[in-house]
Design goal:
The structure is a single chain. By secondary structure, the protein is α/β, with parallel strands linked by helices. It is 22% helix and 26% strand. Strands 8-9-7-6-10-11 form a six-stranded mixed beta sheet. It has a five-stranded mixed beta sheet with strand order 3-2-1-4-5, sandwiched between helices.
């Protein structure tokens, strides 16, 4: 019997980073960084800590699963560089998963008592609702993707082991991406999805400072503990891709910025001319 591959999962695309170690589909442990934007300082100590805990050596890691974006430009570069380095060092295969998919996968953890924030409405997410993952893209824009539940035979994008919020039905929770990764303002999103006959539930770190911009009829906020992308969900989605043989090419692999970084070139004054 072939042993389960040892997997390192990395999530550094958003404010709060994390890493996880898994054996095949079985998650062994996950470690979240101590605070926001601690990716550079804590990623290697966290990885080494998990490896020591399970007596794993770096050369034993056979797969590296990373969150590829959209998200923090610096965080995405950290994960991509780490994955490429481990490939060069020991031939580890790379799986790249969409960051907004990783955030949306948090719906698989929703407890039966999940509620709308700041509301007496305690209706849970149902198969008729939509879920939208939101990240801050700066310049008053957001990275947004929208998901719908599907029971058809098409290959699912997101698959969990239980229905969100203990909802109806006995089949796995299966979600498809109804609106692909997009750049839009909060006003554009509200205009498109508010006052619909289908509630849309929001999650994602993009709501941290801007949730009030999304408040409208038919739009609901999941509890803040479900907002951040996590390494455990990078592994969950990454393992599905690994089973399908969807490994990334380490040579051509690039972060999915969705738009170019905002690079500003400092203006340099021309040198003073010498007087005759």
């Amino acid at each position: 019997m072939t042993p389960e591959p040892l997997i390192l999962a990395v999530e550094t695309s958003s404010r709060t980073g994390s890493v996880a170690v898994a054996a095949g589909e079985r998650l062994l442990a996950e470690m979240t960084f101590s605070g926001p934007m601690r990716h550079s300082a804590e990623i290697f100590p966290a990885i080494l800590g998990l490896m020591e805990r399970f007596a794993v050596r770096p050369r034993q890691i056979e797969q590296v699963h990373i969150s590829i974006g959209p998200g923090s430009f610096t965080g995405l570069r950290i994960a991509t560089t780490l994955a490429k380095t481990m490939h060069l060092a020991n031939g580890a295969k790379i799986i790249a998963v969409d960051t907004l998919d990783v955030i949306a996968a948090n719906v698989f953890d929703l407890a039966p008592d999940c509620v709308v924030q700041n509301s007496t409405n305690r209706a849970p997410v149902t198969r008729d609702d939509r879920v939208a993952a939101i990240l801050d893209a700066k310049r008053n824009q957001f990275f947004i993707a929208v998901y719908e539940h599907t029971g058809d035979e098409r290959p699912p994008l997101l698959r969990g082991q239980a229905y969100p919020c203990g909802g109806r039905g006995t089949s796995d929770a299966i979600w498809k991406k109804a609106v692909p990764d997009s750049l839009m303002t909060a006003a554009q999103f509200v205009e498109r999805f508010a006052r619909s006959d289908r509630p849309t539930w929001l999650l994602g770190d993009g709501l941290l400072y801007y949730k009030d911009r999304f408040i409208a009829e038919g739009i609901r906020l999941l509890d803040e503990r479900y907002w951040s992308p996590r390494a455990s969900k990078v592994h969950l989605l990454g393992w599905q891709k690994a089973l399908a043989g969807q490994f990334a090419d380490p040579v051509t692999l690039q972060p999915n910025y969705l738009r170019r970084p905002d690079v500003r070139i400092k203006k340099i004054n021309p040198p003073c001319e010498l007087a005759d």
